[in-house]
Structure formats: C-alpha cells, structure tokens
Amino acid sequence: MLESTNEHNTHTTSTTTALPYKKRKRSDSFWGFKRRVPLEDISNNKKRRTEYYKEKKRQQRSKESIVEKERRLRQMRESARMKRSIENESPSQRESRLKAQTEARLYVLRERAQQRCANESEVQREARLYDLRERAHQRCANESEVQRKACLTDLSQRSQERPARESESEREMYGFHKERNKRNRVKEPVTAKFYGKQGVTLQRTQLPLLPCWAATIHKVQGLSLDAAVIDLGPKMFEDGMAYVALSRVRTLQGVALLGLVEKKITSSTVANDEMD
Question: Where is the composition biased (Basic residues) (predicted)?
Fold first, then answer.
C-alpha cells in the first residue's frame, strides 16, 4: 500500500509542475482537434497583427496623398498653361473667346430662318459635340416634347438636311444645340459693319450668343413659363411692364417677386380709356 501511494504521489507532483499552457475552448478547435497555444505566442500574434494593419493603413493613406498631390499638380500646370496662352493672345483674340461651361444656358441674339431658330431662342452648351449625334437623337426621341420658347416648328425636319459631321474647327467653335435637340446648331457667326465719320469702317464677327441667367421684360414677350423670379424694382420705366412680366407665368404659385415698388406698377392712359 505504501508503494502504491508513493507512485501516486509522484504522479501527481509531475502533473502539477507542467508548463502554463492555455486551453482553447471546444468551439475553437482547429481541424477537429484541440490545440494548446502558449500565452506568449498569443500576445505576440496580436501585436504583429495590429502592427500589420497599422502599416497597411499608413501605406493606403500615403498612396491617396500621392494621387491627390498629382491631381493638384496637373490642375496647377493646366491653369498656368491657360494663363500663359491668354497672356500671349492679342486683345482681339481675347474678345473673341466665348467662355461657357457644359449645359450653360445661352440666348440667341439674331434670327436664323434657315435653322428655324428665332430671336431670343434658348440654347444650351453641349457636353459632347458631333460624335454622339445619332445616339443623342435616339435618346431624345423617347422623351416628351420639348417646350420651345419663341422658336419655329419642324426643328428635327430641318436638322436632318444638314451633314452629319463638320470639321474639327467647327466642332470647337460652334458646339451649341437648341433645347436638347442636339441636331439643331447655332454654328454660323454674325458679321456686323459700323460706318463712322471720315470714312472709318469697323467690322466685328461673333457668335450671336449671350449668357441666359436672366432676361429683360421686353425680351420675354410671348413666352409662357411655369415659374419665374420677377424684379419689379425702381428700374421699370414703361407703362404696362409689370403686366407683361406677371402675365408670362401660368399660375400664381409660380411667381416670385424681388424689389417690389408699387409706384412703378402703372398702366397706359390710352389703354385705360379703351377699357372704359
């Protein structure tokens, strides 16, 4: 009995002096059997993992910063190049430059009977010019009818008679279309001559376009609008101007007034006598 107890005791002491291993849970078994990982290895793995992800994020931020720096440098070089080109131009070339962003609203200042485009028609700068002409025509065919402002009819019929493509210079110079109809172009410049004293003759050639963020009351006669911001301030100088401006809008909810001066809202005495 004593010998057996001694063997049992030696066995127990050998088990108690084992190395400090951490048992994983049964759910954390790897490939169907339990693994015992030392505590030091677990802490080292965590440190290496955190350092790895930190380094990865730092590299990603550095790449993004490099891309952003390259983009800014390209913008600076492009702006400097444009500035140098403008400085080297003559005054006449500077005046001939028409600055208009994509989809900018413009006004036609001269009538175009051949293009079926009347005075004060609304046009728009096109993003892509003649290369996507057929595709744009097919896309516009499925849309609802475009509201035409002071423009004549049969726009598409007249535009089909024009050639499909123009030269590169005409693409750059005359890239405008009429109210989403990308086949109708304002592509012919206007040449005006002025005869002064002592036989001096002045001549100017330009595109008949003007930025269209606003219009005078005289220019909008005959239009029917859904909404408009109307300035009835002290600059009104004619009888009936307020009536012409307010009657352009179809509903009262679409009217927004700026700088209202009631004294400037007048009517003609001749019109009053006829109404009486």
Answer: 45-60
């030091």: which residue's tokens? 40
Total domains present in the chain: 3
Residue 257 pLDDT more than 80?
A: yes
Q: Which two tokens stand for residue 126?
A: 């096109």
Q: Per the domain annotation, does 138 fall within a domain? A: yes
pTM above 0.70, yes or no: no
Residues 8 and 43 in one domain: yes
Rounded CA-CA distance 130/199 in Å is: 43
Domain that holds residue 22: 1-77
Task: Report, as an integer, the average pLDDT of 231-257.
Answer: 86
For 77-99, write each residue's pLDDT tens digit: 877 887 777 667 666 565 556 66
pLDDT at 235 over 70: yes
pLDDT of residue 44: 73
To the nearest whole number, what is the mean pLDDT of the chain?
63
Tell me which residue of 193, 204, 10, 11 sits closest to 95, measured CA to CA. 204
